[in-house]
Amino acid sequence: MIILYPHNQRFMLRRAHDVLVMRTCHALACRGHQVWLLMGRTAADPAAIVRHYGLEPHPNLHLVQLPVLRLKTRWLSLSWHGVFNFFCRRKLEKLMACLNPDLVYLSEIKLGEKLLAWRRLRALPVAYEVHGLAAPGYEKPDSREQRVFSGVTALITTTASLRAVMERLYSNLPPCHLVPLAADPGKIAPFEPPGDNVSWRLCYIGQLYPLQGVDILIRALALLPLAVTLEIVGGRDDHLQALRNLAHAEGVAERVTFHGFVAPGAVSAHAARAHIFVMPSRADGKMSYVAHTKLYEYLAWGRPVVAADLKVLREDLIDGVNGVLFAPGDPEALAQALRRVMADPENASRMAARGLEQARNFTWERRAERLERCFGEIIHRG
User: Fold this and answer.
1) Paired residues of 64 in beta bridges
2) Among 3.40.50.720, 3.40.30.10, 3.40.50.2000, 3.30.420.40, what is the CATH number of 201-362?
3) Residue 186 and residue 184: Cα distance in Å, rounded?
4) Which residues of 122-132 are buried (b: 16+ CB within 10 A; e: fewer)?
5) Residue from 328, 276, 379, 359 nearest 33 by CA
6) Are 21 and 123 in contact (CB under 8 A)?
7) Distances in Å between the alpha carbon of 6 and those of 36, 60, 243?
């Protein structure tokens, strides 16, 4: 297939969604498809961008960098999507004229609305992948989403929970395919519980905004034995400082290591040090519906997972089988769940092994295979 993927964002921006887009496109290219990723211009060349994500350039993956208007200083923040939209449409016209593409792949609501208003684009099958909703509180429909969802050939969602909300809120939806997220971290040593003289190391990897609940994890750490430590990988500087202040206030500052942002290709080295991965997400807003990339990464790294008991996480986690669930937002419940894992090292090893086995269904190659099947149906229907 020849796939056009317009994406109105720059890359190398320290966001999980960047990783998702790049890894997905790279995996499709490795399966023999020609993927043209139209993206915001950066100072880096295409090869450097691909390598930033721990990948090697592939002849089937074509990165097309287009002008964008993004200005952010200490006093001013300015962004206008019209610049990218204009150059994106011009490039799409050229690619459609010379390549005879099979499919257009979208995942941004604003860009999707602009491109779907272009009659020539609607002559091609269009797949739109949904990662979250603009619908207020996930309770009321959004008019822009309604127009985009009803105007494409097919939708792709990453969780059953999100698909159920979409079907409840929106009418005239096209066929909706379920394609989970993926993870393919570098191989690390198998899980071994710490010995008698070694402390348990907890680990959180990801963004640090309030809905992620890392503050709950720090409060739970204060309820655990002094030998237990925590490593936090990722996050913006402002979020990091707030959590450092909380760690001092809770008396656990010496037990918490903040690593800050780590390039995607280097995260595995930190993961290898962990004994337990923690997902302390709050049960608010989008968190109960959207896919959590870190869950698939945690499973693939082969460690026990302790996670908030959210409906969306129950799609992949079974309490006591491949993870331990706790009441969201409750530091004492989280501390108790962590004690439960640490008190039974043999069962912790079994959970880690089951999670690792499950992760084989969620590699980037498997995601590309699932998308390939979806795209085949969409092209046939379109």
Assistant:
1) 38
2) 3.40.50.2000
3) 7
4) bebbbbbbbbb
5) 379
6) no
7) 8, 16, 36
* Segment 251-289, tens digit of pLDDT: 999 999 999 998 887 888 899 999 999 999 999 989 999
Q: What is the pLDDT of residues 176-232, one digit of tens each?
A: 999 999 998 667 888 998 877 779 999 999 999 999 999 999 999 999 999 999 999
What are the structure tokens assigned to 178, written together?
């379920």
pLDDT of residue 198: 76
Return the exposure string of 27-61: e unless at least 16 CB atoms fall within 10 Å of the residue's CB, then b: bbbbeebbbbbbbbebebebeebbebbbbeeeebb
Total Cβ atoms within 10 A of residue 348: 22
Structure tokens given for 285: 């807003």
Q: Residue 208: is it exposed, middle or buried by C-beta count within 10 angstroms (0-12/13-18/19+)?
A: buried
> 2-182+364-381 with 201-362: one CATH topology?
yes
| Below-50 pLDDT ranges, the chain | none
Residue with tokens 């698909």: 163
Residue 149's pLDDT is 95
Domain spans, the chain: 2-182+364-381, 201-362
C-alpha–C-alpha distance, residues 256 and 248, integer Å: 10
CATH homologous superfamily of 2-182+364-381: Glycogen Phosphorylase B; (3.40.50.2000)
